[in-house]
Amino acid sequence: MADVDTVASDLIDFLNASPTAFHAVAEAKERLKEAGFEHLSEREDWNLETGKKYFFTRNHSTIIAFAIGKRYVAGNGCHVIGAHTDSPCLKLKPISKVVKGGYLEVGVQTYGGGLWHTWFDRDLTVAGRLMIKETKDGSVSYSHKLVRVNEPIMRIPTLAIHLDRGVSEGFKVNTHNHLLPVLATSIKAELQKLAPVNGSLELDIDNDANKTNAKSIADNKKHHPILLQLLADQASCQPDEICDFEVQLCDTQPSNIGGVLKEFIFSGRLDNLCMSFCSLKALIDSTSSGSSLDDEPGVRMVALFDHEEVGSNSAQGAGSPAMLDALSRILKAFSTSDSKLLEKAIQRSFLVSADMAHALHPNYMDKHEENHQPKLHGGLVIKHNANQRYATNAVTSLIFREIAENHNLPIQDFVVRNDMPCGSTIGPIIASGVGIRTVDVGAPQLSMHSIREMCAVDDVRHSYEHFKAYFEEFSQLDAKISVDV
Predict the structure, then answer these.
(1) 139-148 and 256-258: which strand pairing?
(2) CA pair distance 352, 442, nearest whole angstrom
(3) Can you tell me the distance from the alpha carbon of 298 to that of 352, in angstroms, rounded to the nearest whole number?
(4) Which of 104, 126, 92, 93 is nearest to 196 (CA)?
């Protein structure tokens, strides 16, 4: 059994390395490579072997990793854990330059359903990816580079109570007017001659040199030059070599273990990097020894998707065919004879949709249904919803409960109150799109969608151990269950 401090500390390292979905995938890639997983490309043919481990990325914000059992034959099932790499945040607009009231501000757009009031008065920075133009020996290419500014460079200040006497009755945020972070003051920028604040520059474009200069001026009209220079410094390039970017605001406060008894994890992005980490670590550790896959007839898989917070409808979201493509290509690598093998394999497969759950809040206990109050330290939560906002049913929950019972792991249940709307996950999206049996689960947490969330150290260990046991024992357990016969 892994030491609780080791698992929690490992999660802290993962969180601190992952300010964005792009960085989370980069961190996952490094861990998988160290564990002997081979990097595949979706653009190339796959030459797969039983007993081997692989992964691929899509858009560098989604990653799918799998290990093929040595007893696998085409048509056998995959046991999958699905989670997501994205979290609610503020992303820079395509034109982010705002000058107002003597301040340089940054235009941002809301991503997902964040608790936006928690972003005020935080020491913020930026991270994301740049598309860089590179010229070598007269040849032009474009590369993707991840960047992260570690120091605090901007802030969204609240309005003084003296100017808003009604704030104690409710802090209302206009997400268009009030969520602009302050980057600098105009006067300071002018004194340092970093950028013209007012007016515009015109350029007569007659040659290639002027075209480059024109692009630089055009970019300076879209984004503050001081911000572009900062990003360029991070990428070791020139500002005019940045062709485009996807950059978001991030909190600079690191993730840590806290509480007077060191029982909590305080961090941003626990939803859903905590489940991403636990599933990834479980896959790596369940396939780490030379004999791990000797008796495995199936495929163990982790699928970490982007864009869950905004509906999963993208080429790299759970609504895309990414996971189905992976299942199909694995099958075809071992057989091309039976056109119905994929359908058979899907019906022999199983998905654990792992997304953080709502723990009981001691100050808002009436927000929970009386008999369904998940608590911190109580283990993974099985999520139920009669209207299929979660994909759990009696068969799929039984499988997950049996694993918990076999390993003496705690388990909890959650149903939302009838008079409250229910959230959803990637579970129903994949279940309905692929036809795979699915259970929705998640570790309990507080402050979901805040810039700073919290969960319990114990539940990180419970989740990891539950997922690891699922990978190691699902094939034997599933053989004992009879339903559609």
Answers:
(1) unpaired
(2) 10
(3) 15
(4) 104
Strand 139-148, strand 124-136: pairing: antiparallel
Q: What is the dihedral of CA 166, 168, 171, 172, to 10 degrees?
A: -30
Predicted structure pTM score: 0.93
E strand map for 12-119: 38-39, 53-58, 62-68, 78-84, 89-100, 103-111
DSSP state for residue 21 in the 8-state scheme: H
Q: How far is CA 136 from CA 133, 171, 234, 308, in A?
A: 10, 53, 20, 39
Q: Return the closest-CA partner of residue 255 out of 3, 24, 2.
A: 24
The structure tokens listed for 214 are: 């024109």
Host H or E run for residue 322: helix 322-332
SS3 for 238?
A: coil
Burial of 140 (0-12, 13-18, 19+ CB in 10 A): exposed
Please state, in angstroms and rounded to a whole number, the distance separating the CA atoms of residues 319 and 326.
Answer: 14
Q: Are 407 and 466 in contact (CB under 8 A)?
A: yes
Cα torsion 371, 372, 374, 380: sign: positive
> What would the mean pLDDT of 10-15 be, rounded to a whole number?
98
pLDDT tens per residue, range 100-130? 999 999 999 999 999 999 999 999 999 999 9
> Which residues are CB-neighbours of 283 under 8 A, at least 6 positions away?
65, 67, 81, 300, 301, 302, 467, 471
Distance of CA 484 to the CA centre of its chain: 35
- Continuous segment of H or E residues that includes residue 444: strand 444-446
413-419: long-range contacts, CB 8 A cutoff, minimum separation 24: 413/372, 413/374, 413/381, 413/382, 413/384, 414/357, 414/358, 414/372, 414/374, 414/381, 414/382, 414/383, 414/384, 415/369, 415/372, 415/384, 415/385, 416/369, 416/385, 417/367, 417/368, 417/369, 418/369
Pick from 239, 405, 332: nearest CA to 48? 332
Gap between the Cα atoms of 451 and 268, Å rounded:
5
Q: Give the C-alpha separation, 47 to 42, whole Å.
A: 12
Q: Kindly report, residue by residue over 132-162, the tens digit of the pLDDT.
A: 999 888 899 999 999 999 999 999 999 999 9
- Using CA atoms, how far apart are residues 431 and 312, in angstroms rounded to an integer? 13
Are the C-beta atoms of 446 and 262 separated by less than 8 Å? Answer: no
Strand partners, 100: 103
Upstream peptide bond of 16 is cis (omega within 30 degrees of 0): no
CA–CA gap between residue 92 and residue 249 (Å, rounded): 8
Work out the number of other CB atoms within 10 angstroms of the CB of residue 35: 18
Distance CA 418, CA 89 (A): 29
Residue at 131: amino acid letter: M
Q: How far apart are CA 423 and CA 439, in angstroms?
A: 15
What tokens were used for 424?
A: 């959803």
pLDDT tens track for 284-300? 999 999 899 999 999 99
